[in-house]
UniProtKB/TrEMBL annotation:
Organism classification: Bacteria, Bacillati, Actinomycetota, Actinomycetes, Kitasatosporales
Protein name per UniProt: GNAT family N-acetyltransferase
EC number of this enzyme: 2.3.1.-
Organism: Streptomyces carpinensis
Domain N-acetyltransferase, chain residue ranges per copy: 12-156
Pfam families: Acetyltransf_1
Length: 162
């Protein structure tokens, strides 16, 4: 568990997700402003269940009022094959550096797991974010109807050994 401070001096803690976080994480995914309009169908029935949290390295960023249900963001790292499967920051918490904190934490976890790279298939509106935090564009994931109706950029984080 690591503690960080956001640009507005609110303490942010990143901790391992637990089963009781599942409903909050599901609400965060389904309520994401990045998935409004034509993208809404991609997350409409999405569920982050306790089984998912148990199977993957899922971490949440929480503010000082966590016990009131305040999850600011989360990510999920799949080890085989290495992929950043989910990364969400609550709409009201965006622009505070929480996404960068989560990516830095993910890279640290990936390095500790012995990974040298982590792939991410990006949501179109998030592509610039991944580029800004150091991911390199490696290709395009083609549309996969009916689940995903649009092509998505593929990125890779290259993890140097320490």
């Amino acid at each position: 568990m690591s503690s960080r401070t956001s640009p507005i001096s609110q303490p942010i803690t990143i901790r391992r997700a637990v089963a009781r976080d599942a409903k909050r994480l599901t609400r965060l995914v389904r309520g994401s402003g990045a998935y409004e309009g034509k993208y809404a169908a991609a997350v409409a029935g999405y569920r982050v269940g306790p089984d998912y949290i148990e199977a993957h390295r899922a971490y949440v960023a929480v503010g000082p009022d966590e016990h009131g249900g305040r999850v600011l963001g989360f990510y999920s790292l799949v080890l085989a094959p290495p992929e950043l499967d989910l990364l969400f920051v609550a709409d009201e918490a965006q622009g505070r550096g929480i996404g960068r904190l989560l990516v830095a934490h993910m890279l640290s976890e990936a390095r500790a797991a012995g990974l040298d790279r982590v792939m991410v298939v990006s949501h179109l509106p998030a592509a610039d974010f991944y580029h800004r935090v150091g991911a390199v564009r490696i290709g395009t994931a083609l549309a996969n109807p009916p689940a995903v109706l649009w092509d998505r950029p593929e990125f890779e984080f290259r993890i140097p050994s320490e």
